[in-house]
What does this fold into?
Amino acid sequence: MNPRFESPEIAVLYEFPGVPCRVAALAREGDDAYAVVDVGDEGEPRLHGITVLRGEGGWEAGTDGSGPGWTRTDPAHDLGTATAWGQAPEGTVRVRATLGGDTREMPVARGIYLVAWWRVPRPGAGEPRVDAFRVGDRWVPASPRR
It folds into this structure.
């Protein structure tokens, strides 16, 4: 069993012992959290995502990966966390992403975006997807690969 911590941020950083890193983005709802960690050098982000769950005794890091998508967090009900995250174009202040018709807008901080949906079934191919970035006062469509 992994150790438990008082915050999702501490639980995530525990997973990278001896590696200079920072939590670049964090989304949280109830007992679920998702963090995007930057393990790259200054000015050269290398992003890594990780689920975090709160149980008895605190927060525990879960499944990690090198890209956005869907991660099972509730095997009994085959539900998970769906995420869209990455490095935003320069000057981006908000991101818009969609999963199964549910469109969400989130702020972008320090050039990194994260949009999360909690306790959802595995989405179809290509979802979730980033639709657009707000750069200055206008929305710019995202490239199809985001």
Remarks:
- Residues 50 and 64 are 4 Å apart (CA to CA).
- The mean pLDDT is 92.
- Helices lie at 8-14.
- DSSP finds one helix and eleven strands in the chain.
